[in-house]
TrEMBL record:
It is found in: Cytoplasm, Cytosol. This is Carboxymethylenebutenolidase homolog. Keywords: Cytoplasm, Hydrolase, Signal. InterPro entries: AB_hydrolase_fold, CMBL, Dienelactn_hydro.
Length: 346
């Protein structure tokens, strides 16, 4: 894969219109208009300000969490929550409380805590966001793009998922060495070569094991969910193909890069694929091929959209598509992790 293609795959904050090339839309389950509005998906839309209108705040030195509410939020310190074995917790300024003039029906309180998973040289950092009032006990693993787990757009998205009752774990897939936007583009291939797929796979499996101990073994949840963006989307496919014990109940892959269609035959859980038809790093033809191999999967394509439009929208049009995609994802998680598991217990 050439440098330009690789950068497009993993750096959605770069101007996409300057990088993307047109690609054939192929056969899709759902090819949506440029506005991205789907009439086939029911359910209330979350009441949040448009994504592209949310300010990206710098990380707080003592709490490492960004908040994208347009209205001011209060941050206050909370002691670390009880953690499972082989995990260390840090006391962080991690709870976000909405002021009285913010509609708290749109988002319940969410606690965040920084973790260290594993031991010694095999350890790595992660961030766990937990719903306070409406926690449904279900764990969701979120695999980031190249900008890593501390990137504000990634944490904002994880926070928003947690608002709907989930416990969202965001690991540091790059061991404190994510790609930086101010680095020279011609160094991208060298940086990527240092991200060993085998090491990333071990870290993802360690996260899975931690979530099994934390949520499944405790009888809190019956299945886990996994979400992946770009680089993380490719590793989502790999992780689900290794999930022989079917710990995961579903996956949501946003514009996954470097996906191997042959892995689809080993995946036994339904996967939602969301992408744009203007994203050569995630060809629609590849998604259609994978969809045929995974029972119960679905492909949703947004016309005219490129890499990163769901969690990094750059225009009002992308705001609309991002809101629609989030609604589809939310319903998918609910149906496959909550409703489906309830039906199995009846």
């Amino acid at each position: 894969m050439g440098t330009a293609s690789a950068v497009l795959t993993l750096l959605p904050l770069l101007p996409r219109r300057a990088l993307v090339a047109s690609s054939s839309p192929g056969r899709t389950r759902a090819l949506l208009s440029s506005g991205g509005v789907s009439s086939s998906v029911s359910g209330l839309r979350p009441r949040f300000p448009p994504l592209s209108h949310r300010p990206i705040l710098p990380s707080y030195a003592d709490c490492n969490i960004s908040v994208w509410f347009q209205r001011r939020c209060n941050l206050y310190c909370r002691r670390g929550m009880p953690l499972g074995r082989k995990v260390t917790g840090k006391s962080l300024c991690s709870q976000v409380e909405l002021e009285d003039d913010v509609d708290d029906e749109a988002c319940e309180l969410v606690n965040g805590v920084e973790l260290v998973i594993g031991e010694g040289e095999d350890s790595f950092r992660a961030y766990l966001l937990k719903a306070v009032k409406n926690n449904n006990g279900t764990g969701v693993l979120l695999l980031s793009d190249a900008l890593g787990f501390e990137d504000s757009a990634t944490r904002d998205f994880a926070y928003r998922v947690a608002c709907y009752g989930y416990n969202v774990l965001v690991p540091d897939l790059f061991r404190a060495n994510p790609w930086k936007l101010n680095w020279a583009v011609d160094g991208f291939d060298s940086w990527l070569s240092k991200q060993s797929p085998e090491r990333v796979a071990r870290d993802v499996d360690a996260c899975t094991a931690w979530m099994i101990d934390e949520f499944l073994a405790a009888g809190i949840s019956k299945k886990l969910g996994v979400i992946g963006f770009s680089f993380g989307g490719g590793h989502l496919m790999e992780a689900l193909s290794r999930d022989e014990q079917a710990y995961y109940g579903t996956g949501i892959c946003f514009y996954g890069s470097n996906m191997d269609p042959s892995k689809g035959s080993s995946i036994k859980t339904p996967v939602l694929f969301v992408s744009g038809d203007n994203d050569p790093s995630c060809p629609v033809t590849t998604l259609n091929e994978i969809e045929k191999k995974i029972q119960g999967s679905r492909v949703v394509i947004y016309h005219g959209r490129g890499q990163g439009f769901v969690h990094r929208p750059e225009s009002e049009e992308e705001d609309e598509a991002a809101e629609d995609a989030f609604s589809i994802m939310r319903n998918w998680l609910h149906d496959n992790l909550l409703v489906r598991e309830t039906e199995l217990l009846v």
